[in-house]
Design brief:
Mean pLDDT: 95
Largest sheet: 7 strands, mixed
Strand order of the largest sheet: 1-7-6-5-4-2-3
Structural class: alpha/beta
Bound molecules: pyridoxal-5'-phosphate
Helix content: 25-40%
Number of strands: 12
Strand content: 5-15%
CATH architecture of the largest domain: 3-Layer(aba) Sandwich
CATH topology of the largest domain: Aspartate Aminotransferase, domain 2
Number of helices: 15
Order of helices and strands: HHHEHEHEHEHEHEEHHHEHEHEEHEH
CATH superfamily of the largest domain: Type I PLP-dependent aspartate aminotransferase-like (Major domain)
Length: 397
């Protein structure tokens, strides 16, 4: 760093992980496809292989392009260390399996991401790990479960797809009182809008596939936290093998150079779209933390700098058929399962966040069939509002 002033997130988005001089004098981080790294000197090789000297040995363990990506996220999250995986689920499962053992207990929320929810309901119990899933906004219930004892408190805020907000600082305190590792999936907020480590979390997790990469052209996952914790997650991932590909790492790095611009724009547009939808007669409810009328708004105002680019809304006519009619009339939205990209993406939970669940399971989680998740891109807000107005004209008020 040139001086003591801590650079702003915009400067870090551009420079972090990429500010050193590269071997080739290239100004952009090269994609190092080499699977291995060769040494003439056995002593040096041994030191690198044992992790006693900087450098790389084998691509499943580490790679320079991947390391640059990890460094960029680490600096943005203001963390001691970071490690990555091939996908968001790769890093989430690595984090959970690295920490938990048979007989341990996890406390989490009912609204965690669909894949994470599957780990909790289908896989962890098979390994003798008990999981207590609480109503997401019932902080007292979460605190009660935590104080009954747990090794991991796993949170997500805002949640997918109903944007529920949990008080990270309050729950992190409860988690630490119980001796738990507090994990937060920060995918929806990104470090531009929310810094879970500042709020007391031990480990921040991201599906980099979404806002970090921002262009829907690379899968990836990343975790940030203290060095000892990250070392455990890294070790699990290097042995279990879900390493991030160098080409994906490069695409994520390139996408992240505009993270602050994209998120700033998406925060503004999402609020405009949410306000428009809130006033539309065909819309029963709008879920967006930036709306004063939204249940989690006060907590969100305290812990977020911006409210993010994803919202969801429920049609008055709450059926998958009505959802289909609206979605198919949209011009400026991909109907697809991802989110957080430069283009607007829309879809129902049945084909996106909760496609792993049955309608009955979704209903039990409070996710109605008439819900549409809408992830704003960087298009002009006026065009998106006009597009929604046209599409909503096709359903009854
Ligand atoms: C998409 C997503 C994940 C999973 O990430 P992948 O990269 O698809 O494995 C986890 N958490 C949240 C909140 C997500 O949106």
């Amino acid at each position: 760093m040139p001086d003591d002033r801590r650079p702003s997130p915009g400067t870090l988005s551009v420079w972090a992980g990429e500010s050193g001089r590269l071997d080739t004098n290239a100004t952009q981080v090269p994609v190092v496809h080499s699977v291995s790294f060769g040494y003439d000197n056995l002593d040096e090789w041994l030191r690198v292989a044992r992790g006693e000297a900087p450098g790389h040995n084998y691509g499943r363990n580490s790679n320079p392009t991947v390391a640059a990506f990890e460094e960029k996220v680490r600096e943005l999250e203001d963390a001691e260390a970071a490690t990555s995986a091939a996908t968001g689920m790769g890093i989430i499962s690595s984090a959970l399996y690295a920490i938990l053992s048979p007989g341990d207990r996890v406390v989490s929320i009912k609204d965690s991401y669909g894949g994470t929810n599957r780990l909790f309901t289908e896989f962890l119990p098979r390994f003798g790990i008990e999981v207590a899933l609480c109503d997401t906004t019932d902080h007292e219930a979460i605190e009660r479960e935590v104080s009954a004892g747990c090794q991991v408190l796993y949170l997500e805020s805002p949640t997918n797809p109903t944007l529920k907000v949990v008080d990270v600082a309050r729950l992190a305190e409860a988690g630490h009182a119980a001796g738990a590792v507090v994990m937060v999936d920060n995918t929806f907020a990104t470090p531009i809008n929310q810094k879970p480590l500042e709020l007391g979390a031990d480990l921040v997790l991201h599906s980099a596939t979404k806002f970090l990469g921002g262009h829907a052209d690379a899968l990836g996952g990343v975790a940030c936290g203290g060095s000892a914790l990250i070392e455990r997650v890294f070790h699990y991932r290097e042995i279990h093998g879900a390493s991030l590909h160098p080409m994906a790492a490069y695409l994520l790095l390139r996408g992240m150079k505009t993270l602050h611009l994209r998120i700033g724009r998406q925060n503004e547009t999402a609020l405009r779209v949410a306000r428009f939808l809130e006033s539309h007669p065909a819309v029963a409810s709008v879920h967006y933390p930036g709306l004063e009328s939204f249940e989690g708004h006060e907590i969100a105002r305290r812990q977020m700098r911006g409210f993010g680019g994803v919202l969801s809304f429920e049609l008055q006519e709450s059926s998958l058929e009505a959802v289909g009619r609206v979605l198919e009339r949209l011009c400026w939205a991909r109907l697809a399962a991802n989110l957080g990209s430069v283009e607007t993406v829309a879809g129902p939970p049945a084909t996106t966040s909760h496609c792993e669940c049955t309608p009955a399971e979704r209903a039990a989680m409070g996710i109605p069939e008439g819900l549409i998740r809408y992830s704003v891109g960087v298009e002009d807000a006026e065009d998106l509002v006009a597009d929604l107005e046209r599409a909503l004209g096709g359903v009854g008020g």
